[in-house]
Structures are given as C-alpha cells and as structure tokens.
Amino acid sequence: MYNFFQFVATIILVVSTSAAIAQHQQDSVIKELSLKEVQIHTIRKSKQPGTTFYQSSLLASTEDILARVEGVNLIRRGPIGMEPVLRGFSAGQINVVIDGMRIFGACTDKMDPATIYTEPVNLKSIDIKYGGDGIGTGATIGGTLNLKLADALIDSNSRFTGSLASGYYSAATAVQNAVVMNYSEKKWAIRFSGVYRKGGDYTDGENKKVDFSQYGKMNTSVSGKYQFNKNSTIKADFILDDGWNIGFPALAMDVGYAKARIASVTYERNNSAQFMQEIEAKIYANAVRHAMDDTKRPATAMHMDMPGQSHTFGAFLQFRLRKMGIHNFKVKTDFYYNSVYADMTMYPKDAAPMFMLTWPKNHQKVAGLFVEDEMYLSSMSRLGLKLRIEAVNAKVTDEMGQDQFSVLGYDVHRPVKQILKNVNISYTRFLSSVLTAYLSAGFNERSPTTSERFGFYLFNQMDNHDYVGNPLLKNEQAWNGEFNLLFAKKDFSWKLSAFSSWVAHYIMGKTQQSLSVMTIGATGVRSYENIPSARLFGAESSFSYQLLNRHLTFNNTWKWLRGEDNEKTPLPLMSPLKIMTSVRFQHRTLSFQVENEICSKQNQINIDFGESVSPGYTLFHIRSGYGFVIKKHKLDFSAGIENLLNKAYADHLDWGAILRPGRNIYGLLTFKF
Q1: Per the domain annotation, does 530 fall within a domain?
Q2: What total number of domains does the chain contain?
Q3: Residue 14 vs residue 577, higher pLDDT
Q4: How far does the chain reach from its first CA to its final CA, in angstroms?
Q5: Which residues are paired to 642 by β-bridges?
Q6: How far is the C-alpha of 515 from the C-alpha of 470, rounded, in Å?
C-alpha cells in the first residue's frame, strides 16, 4: 500500500514541476490515439471511411463489428452470445458497459455477455479503451468496452426520418429485420429502433448441419430527448431485449430464454462560459433473467433446470472544469449495486430432485471516484494523468449459500471489503504535422467476479471440470504499458501499437483432489486460485489508404498476442496472429468490396485447460451495394458472399472447435426516408 501511494505521489510531483504554460492544439490525431471508437450506421451513414470495414451492413450484429476491431477477439460457444476479449483479458478483467452503465449477465456459463443485449441500430458508436485508459467506468486491468447509445435527433428541418431493412442469410436460413425511426419537434425528439433475428441450424464448410446452432432474438429501444435550452438537455432510454431457443453447440445446454430490461435517465449540460463546462448525470437500472435448457438435447444423462437473474441500479455524475493554466480536469463519481442469483435443480431417474445454489444470492456495492487531468505542456506535447479509487463491498446474503461454502471450509457470513487503486499516466508528442507518438503506463487492480469468489460447482465444458469459488482470492494487480505511433494525412493513416501487461495474483483454476465431482462425466473439481504472476504482450496495426479521388479504399488490420504464466506455460484462450484486409470501390451509389481474412496456426496452447493446436485458415468475402432514389427516398440493395470458398474452419477461441458457417450468401434491402 505504501509503495503504491509513493508511486502516485512521485507521478504528481513530476507532473507539477515539469509542466509549462502551453497552447491548446486542436488535432484529430489525438482523438484517434486516445481511444478506438467505431461509428455505427443508423439512420445516416457515418462519414468515416473506415466504418464500412467494421460494419458491413445495417443488419451487422454488434459481435460482427467487434470481431473486426484490432485488439478485440471473441470467445465463441454458439452463433450469438460471444464473449469479448480485449488484448487477452476477458470476463471480470474488463468492463463491458452500455452508455456508461454497469450491467452483469445472469448466466453462470457466460452465455449472456452485456454485448448480446444491444444491437447496432440502437448504438451510435463503440468506444474501446485498453488497460488503464479504461478506468473511467470502473476499476479494470484489461480495459473498457463502452456501447454508446444513439440519441434521438432534434432537427426541426427533418421531422420524421427513418429506415427499414430486411435481409436473408443462406448458411442458417436466417431472416433479419430492422427498423429505425426518429420524430422531432423544435425542442424534443423521440427515436425508436427494433431488430428481429431468427436462424436455424447453420451449415458448416463441410456442408454439414451444426446441431443446436439455432437462435431467435428481438431487440427494441426507445430514446427520448428534451432540450431545455441550447446548453442543456435531458434524455431517457429504454432497451428491451428478448432471446429464445438459442443453441450453444459447444456446450451441453442451450438457452431457453435470455431477457434484459435496461432503463436510464441522463441530464447533460455544456456551457464553455461556466466553471463546470460539461456536466453529465445519469441514473439507471437494469434486470437480466436467463435460463439454460437441455430438454432438446438427446440422450441427456440427467435433466437440469438452471435459471439465473441479475439486478443492477446505479448512478454517476461527471463534469469537466474550465481550463486552468495547463490543466484540464475531468471528475467523475459513481455508484452501483448489483445482486445476482442462480440455482440448479437436477432430476435423476428414479430419485427425488436435487437442488443446489450455483450462485448463492449475493450482492456487491461499489463506489468510485475518478479524476483525469489532461495537461498541455506545449503546442507539441501533452501529459495525461488518470486516478481512480474504488470501494467494494461483496457479501453472500443467502443462508443456504453460506452453509454450502461452510462445507468447503469457508466462512462467508462477513462481507468482503476492498479498496481498489488505479493510476494511469500518458504522454503524447506531436513529432510533426502528420506523425504522433503516444506512450502510457499504469498500475491497475480488479476484484474477483461472482463466479470466482462465490461460484459453486460450475461446469466448464472446455476442460471438463467442475469449478468452485474461493472467497479468499486476492485482487489481480497489473502493470500495463503501451506505445502507439500514428501517421495521418488526408487520405492515408497508419497506426502501430505495442503493449505489455504484467499481472500479479493472476486467477486460474487449480485441481482439488480432495473434492468430488458433481457433474456426471466430469474429470475433476477445480477451485479458483491466485498464481504468482502472468504476462501478456502483443502488437497491432491499422492501415487505411484512399486513392483515385477516394473511389478506392484500402484497409488493413492485424493483431498478435501472447500470454504466459510465471512458469512460461501459455495462458489459455490467447488468439494467434490475425490479418484482415479490405479493398472497397465506391462510385456514387455503387459499391463493391473484397475482403481477405487470415488467421495463423496456434500452437501456443494450454493443454491443462483442454486446448489443442488450432490450424490456420484463410477466408475470402465479397460485398456489393447499389442505391436508388425514389421520390426523395432512398432504396439500397446489398448482397454478398461470406466464406466464398466454403472453407471448413474454426477459430482458436471457439470452444469445442465447432466449425463455423460455410459459404453464406446474403441479400439485404434497405429503405430510407
């Protein structure tokens, strides 16, 4: 503790003594360096040329977009509900928030990450910050994925606008429909969006049906905004997301239903003449219900019911102060309360049902204070400092759950209280009008998740073990470092990133020979334990070039990652080198795009976790589009072929090495008004 505060004090001393009065340089380069923000197509197309690379159509899912972003990978257990990974960090190591709101899944098997409860039609952008850059939304060692909601648009010149889209995808005989509508008066507006997705079992690259890969999903959102004056607005958002009969071929069970209800009210004020120039205050609440289902699985050894629920409410207040000398302060205070509960009822043949709490009812109360200071040292350099302190109170409130853990020798009657400390410092240097360097480093902590701390006999299909939580786990602590170099001109940009993280008290499952399995056929029981340390490192690049008067756009991204523990054993679920290239021709309303996706072989594997060597693969996709104008309305037709050569392949992060869809021909019709 003393060393940490000594470290923070040293940083503050260096910052305060080395700063000089500076000019404020307005440069879009720093915006690209400080975060990765992918704009989303809703009613109007984004003007960013790279957006079409990340979002192939209006009906592209949130997961489709994330899969293309450098630094992001997805753990796949089924066709939807994929778990995001930021530079090798996942689950409780990262924050996945919706418009700054904390939301927690209700499934003990991670079938419902927060990303599944949004759709691109209700988003305006996806903001990704890695490592300590992401501590503004909560303590984290791996970063933050913020799904920013689209606002209702107040525009008296366009009172009623919208779009309708409908598409068909051959691999899963899937239909997808979307609607976006915006109605505006002079001082207020309301926006509605909806998506319906339904697909059957898809066909893989070997022309075989993949059983239990079907899904059904509906998402609707309503956003209203009222403008008090030119500086102040209030808005309300509500999302309703329902999924049903969602297959998970890599697991022993599917999803019977997954339901989320998300609501918030936000007040915003921007006035450069006042001391508090920017103010944002939000209150929110969300509820998630989820149930695993094995009734459609043949030859099930024993039927089980596994429902779960999660409830969260919270609030935050953040404001940016008027610039004081070289300092530009941003302050945020936040609080949230989360309660989760999950159980399992087993129905053995010729015996009475057996009941068990897989997540005994427990809650966590978290309060945090975040301070950011962006210092303009000169017209050519900036220094950034981010500090966050967070108080955590976690407790099992269920008497049966307390008794369950007493069998394992743990006393969980008293709450777990922790203080998490996070600090990040960054330096930006404008080397020239087109070349910028960015360096950041920091110390970050995160507390264990509900499963890691209080989970009770959670089956892991990957390594075939039951897992039990450990209430005595230490916090993971990470030293993160990153270096970025960006070259940007009018029609050309290139960004290169290198990063490394050293994590103390890394949490992994360790086999406990003294415990007996609960799941029929399981190899053994593991509990979550702290190992001395782990190291993750890698590099990424993104490249964009427009030529022929911007009729032709070339995009390329690649990402490479390695991870190992203190004994040099590879960490599980580390993605190999991936390269994605896109060439797009655009002339007026006609577009044609060719894509190539390359993934290398992964032989850096963790055998103890159930991993095996994953072969590399190469994929080709083609996409096209053409637009018509009909009485001032626009009709767009898009068509394409994904996995053009019908390659039989699976990604290294795909559980069970279940083959992904083969050749997928799709068509999409969009009407904009």
Answers
A1: no
A2: 1
A3: 577
A4: 59
A5: 664
A6: 14
Give residues with Cβ within 8 angstroms of 605, minimum separation 6.
570, 572, 611, 612, 613, 614
pLDDT on residue 322: 92
> Which residue is associated with the tokens 């997928």?
664
Can you tell me the distance from the alpha carbon of 48 to that of 43, in angstroms, rounded to the nearest whole number? Answer: 15
List of residues 6+ apart from 426 with CB closer than 8 A? 34, 133, 383, 384, 385, 386, 438, 439, 440, 441
Q: Is 298 helix (H, G, I), strand (E, B) or coil?
A: coil
CA–CA–CA angle 648, 652, 653 (5° rounding):
115
The reply to whether 647 falls in a domain is: yes
Tokens representing residue 20 in the block: 């000089």
DSSP string of 207-257?
Answer: S-B-TT--EEEEEEEEEEEEESSSSEEEEEEEEEEEEEEE--TTSS-EEEE
The CA distance from 243 to 116, in Å, is 9
The first and second tokens of residue 631, run together, are: 């009485």
Is residue 523 in some structural domain?
A: no
Both tokens assigned to 67:
């899969």
pLDDT per position as a tens digit, 518-544: 888 899 999 999 999 999 999 999 999
The two tokens of residue 653 are 């992060």
Q: Where are the beta strands (DSSP E) in 271-326?
A: 276-293, 303-321
Cβ-based neighbour number of residue 113 at 10 Å: 23
* Predicted confidence (pLDDT) at residue 3 exceeds the cutoff of 50: no
Residue with tokens 């699985």: 297
Structure tokens given for 609: 């976790």
pLDDT at 41: 65
Decide: pTM greater than 0.85. Answer: yes
338 domain residue, yes or no: yes
- pLDDT, mean of residues 380-393: 97
Spatial contact of 570 and 517, defined as CB atoms under 8 Å apart: no
CA–CA distance, 625 with 667 (Å, rounded to integer): 10
State the Cα–Cα distance between residues 151 and 99, nearest whole angstrom.
Answer: 11
Residue-number span of the structural domain to which 337 is assigned: 2-517+544-672
Q: How far apart are CA 420 and CA 367, in angstroms?
A: 10
Rg of the chain on CA atoms, in Å: 25
The enclosing domain of 438 has a CATH number of 2.40.170.20
Residue 271 structure tokens? 């006035």
Count of residues in the chain: 673
Helix (H, G, I), strand (E, B) or coil at 92: helix
Residue 276, SS3? strand
